[in-house]
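Input:
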Amino acid sequence: MTGFPIHITSLTLDGEKYWAVWALSFRQRFAQPAVLLASAGYYVLVLCVFAKLYQVLLAQEPAGAAGAREYLWYIAITEWIICAMPRFHLDIEQDVRLGELAYQLTRPTSYLGFRLSIAGAELCANLLLLGVVGVAVACALVGPPADPGVLLEALPLAVLASLLWVLCTAAIGLTAFWVQDTQPLYWIFQKGVFVLGGLLVPLHLYPDWMRQAAIALPFSALLYTPARVVFGTDASGYGLSLAQSLLWCALAALLLRFVHGRALRTLDLHGG
Amino acid sequence: MDRFHYLIALARTAQRASFALRIAFLLQAGFMVVNNLLFFSIWWVLLQRFPSIGGYTLADMALLYGLCAAGFGVAAVVCGGMFQLGRHIGDGDLDALLCQPRNVLWRALASHSQASGFGDIVSGLLLIGLSGHTDAAHIPLVLLAVLLSATTFVAVCVMAQALVFWLGRIERLSRSLFEFVLTLATQPPTLFSGGIKLLLFTLLPAAFAGHVPAALIRNCDARDLALASCGTLLYTAGAVWLFGRGLRHYASGSRFGVWA
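Output:
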C-alpha cells in the first residue's frame, strides 16, 4: 500500500536534484560573458560569410539572387543548432581519465543525469542567446522570412534535434571507458552531421544517391529537418518530420542507456 | 647548445612525447585525415550544383583548403603549445620558463605537439596534390606557401593568447579569435570586398594565412611572394613584440610546477 506514494516521492526528489543542477548551471553560463561573446561572435561571422556566399552563388543562376533569403535563414537555423551544442564529451572523458568519476558516483545523483543536466542548461542558455542574435542578424542581412511563422515551426524540431545531439554526445563521451580519447570519434560524428545533415547545403541540392543516404540516417534529423521548413512544408510533411525526430531521440536514449550500463559494468569490474 | 640545436632538441622531445602512445597517435592522425576530407566534401557537393564561387572552382578550393590544413598541421605539430599559451599565462606556469636561460615564447610554443596535426598535414598535401594546380616544379612553392601559412597561424594564435596578459582569463575568447581567422582563411577570397577585405589583411590576417599563399602557388607571381612574405614577417614580429610586452605585465603565479 505504501510503495506507490514513496516511488512518486522518490521521483519528485530526484527531479528536484537535477532541476537544481540545471538551474545553477544555467545561471553560471550567463556569468561567463567572454564565452557567450565568443559564441555569438562566431555565429555572426558565419552568417555574414554565408549570406555573401549564397548571394554570389545564386547571382550566377537564371533566377538571379531570388531564394538567397531562404538559404540564409536555412544556414541561420543549422548554425544556431551547431553553435549552441555543448561539447561535454570532453568533460566526461576527463572524469574517466583522471579517475574523478569515482568521486561522482558517491553522490546521491546519477552521474549521467548530472552531466545531462549541466549540458542541458548550457544548451538552453546558448539556444536562447544565439536565437535572439541569429534572428536579429539574419533580419538585418536579408530581412525576415516570407512567412515568419516558419520560425515557430522550426522551434520544436530544433529542440528535438538539440536533444538528439546531446544524447549522442553523451554516448560518445562514455566511450572514454574503452578508447581513452573520444575526440577522434566526435570529429567523425560531427563531420558526418555537417555533411549528411546539410549544414551549409540543403539536402535537396545533393546528388540523389547522397540525399537518399542522408535522409535514411539520423544526421538529417539533427540539422536538415528543422531548417528545411524555411523552404515551405505541408502539415503531413511537418508531422512526419516531428515523428522521425521523436523516433531518433527515442533510439538515441536507448543507445545511451545501453552504453551507460556497459560503462558502469566496466567500472565495477575494473575499479575506479 | 646554440639556438638552432636547442630548437631542434625541443621539437624532437615534443615529437617523442606525441609518438609515445602509438595507437592514440595513429587514431588521432588517421581520424583527422577523415575529418578534413569529410568536411571538404561539403565544398564538393556545393560545386557540383553551382559551377563556381565568383570564379573560384573546386580545384581552387582544394588548393586553398589543402594549404590551410597543411599550414595548420605544421603549426600544431611544431608549435602545439600555442593553444595552451593563454592557460599557462593565466595559471602562472611561465614562472618555470622565466628561470631558464632560453627564450620563454619558444619554449612555451614547442612544449607540446598535437598528433592530429600530422593528419592535417597529410590531408592538406593530398588536397593540394588533387587540386591539379601543382606539379614537380611547384613543390618548392608549395613548401614555402605551407611554411608561410603555418607561421601566420602561429603568429595569430600567439597574439590572441597574449591578450590574457592584460584581459585576464579569456582563453575561450582567444581561441575563438583564432578560429575566426582559420574559418575566414578557408573561405574563397572572391566572397570578400571593401572593408571586409581590409580586415582580412589587418586585424584578422586570414589573407596571409590562406588566400595570398594559395595565389602564390596558383600564379607563381613575385608580387604574391613579396606580399605573403612581408605579411607573415610583420605578424610574426608583432606576435613576438606583443608577447614580450605582455611578459613585462606578467605577475608570478607562485605556483610550483614542472615543464616536461
